[in-house]
Write a structure and sequence with these properties.
The chain is an alpha+beta fold. The chain has a domain of 99 residues: Alpha-D-Glucose-1,6-Bisphosphate, Chain A, domain 4. The chain contains 3 helices and 7 strands; from the N terminus they run βααββββββα. Helix 1 crosses helix 2.
Length: 152
């Protein structure tokens, strides 16, 4: 399922892996970084705190990714706020309303059902909303494949 509206991106995949393994891939910062393409060395995801690291994807290594963890409901929900497609180093995104990224896990026959939802694009400034939505939509397609390869 690959649903999208103007405000949210949704992706869903059945991962042929135990829920605990998927949870660890999502919520252990170093594991997350390995499949997502960011170096969170020695950091942990803690609700209310900023976790940051440099992107490792070729051509984007100069970009610092920052997330503010919202929720960690063991083996069920991991969520964070971030600024979508914040790639202009000369721009200060801190005054923008961030989007919310949620990873939701459910038991499923044959593995773990993972849903990824990024919402709040309607609050991204109009001048960059369409591009941020388009780039993150394609990015989530790629990241779903990355986590699948990582856990399976």
């Amino acid at each position: 399922m690959n649903a999208s509206s103007n405000d949210r991106i949704e992706r869903e995949i059945l991962l042929k892996a135990p829920r605990a393994k998927v949870w660890n891939a999502l919520t252990d910062a170093e594991s997350f970084g390995q499949w997502f393409g960011v170096k969170f060395q020695g950091q942990r995801f803690v609700p209310g705190q900023v976790t940051q690291g440099y992107i490792t994807y070729p051509g984007y290594e100069h970009l610092l990714m920052q997330v503010v963890v919202q929720q960690l409901q063991p083996q069920r929900l991991f969520s964070f706020h971030w600024h979508p497609y914040a790639v202009d180093q000369d721009k200060d995104y801190s005054q923008e309303e961030p989007t919310l990224v949620e990873f939701i896990l459910d038991e499923a026959e044959g593995g773990t059902l993972l849903r990824v939802i990024e919402s709040g694009f309607d609050k991204v400034p109009a001048a960059r909303r369409e591009e941020a939505f388009r780039m993150n939509s394609g990015g989530w397609d790629e990241q779903i494949g990355n986590i699948q390869r990582y856990v399976e």
